[in-house]
């Protein structure tokens, strides 16, 4: 059974699993983009699914460059 995420659950997850801060105050579903503040100070938007499952927990400036195939 899937867990029903609330904005408070997400805020707690972000605090425990990253250096980012959640700025959004409402959550309406998995396709909604949430506003985060990166540890470098820049704001960025991601869906919670990408933040959680794809490990995209930084802004575009702080993301490590991908290696080519």
Number of strands: 3
H/E element string? Answer: HEEEH
Strand order of the largest sheet: 1-2-3
N-to-C terminal Cα separation, in Å? 36 Å
Multimeric state:
single chain
Structural class: alpha+beta
Shape: globular
Could you estimate the helical fraction of the residues in percent? 10-25%
Individual helix count? 2
Global Rg: 12 Å
Q: Strand percentage, roughly?
A: 15-25%
Average residue pLDDT: 89
Biggest sheet, open or closed, and with what strands and sense?
Answer: 3 strands, antiparallel
Instruction: Note poorly predicted spans.
Output: none
What would you note in describing this structure?
By secondary structure, this protein is an alpha+beta fold. Helix content is 25%, strand content 17%. It contains two helices and three strands; from the N terminus they run αβββα. A three-stranded antiparallel β-sheet has the order 1-2-3. A hairpin with a 5-residue loop joins strand 2 and strand 3 (43-47). The mean pLDDT is 89.
């Amino acid at each position: 059974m899937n867990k029903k995420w609330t904005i408070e659950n997400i805020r707690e997850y972000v605090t425990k699993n990253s250096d980012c801060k959640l700025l959004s105050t409402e959550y309406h579903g998995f396709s909604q983009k949430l506003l985060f503040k990166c540890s470098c100070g820049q704001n960025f938007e991601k869906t919670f699914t990408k933040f959680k499952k794809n490990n995209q927990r930084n802004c575009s400036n702080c993301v490590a460059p991908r290696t080519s195939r």
